[in-house]
Amino acid sequence: MNGFSGIIGNELIKEHMYKAIQEDKPYHAYILQGETGAGKKITAVAFAAGLQCTCDGERPCEYCVSCRQIKANCHTDVIWIEKEKSGYGVEEIRNQLNQAVSMKPYTSKYKIFLITEAETMTEAAQNALLKTIEEPPEYAVIILMTNNINNLLPTVRSRCMTLEFGPLTTAAIEEYLIKQHKIPDYLAKTSAMFAQGNLGKAIRYATAENFIQKKEKILQMLRKIQQMKVFNIITDLKTIIKNKEEASDAIDLMIIWYRDVLLFKATNDVNQILLSEEYLNILEDAKRLSYSKIEEILQGFEKAKIRLHANVNLEVAMELMLLNIKE
Ligand SMILES: [Zn+2]
Question: pTM for this structure?
Answer without folding.
Answer: 0.80
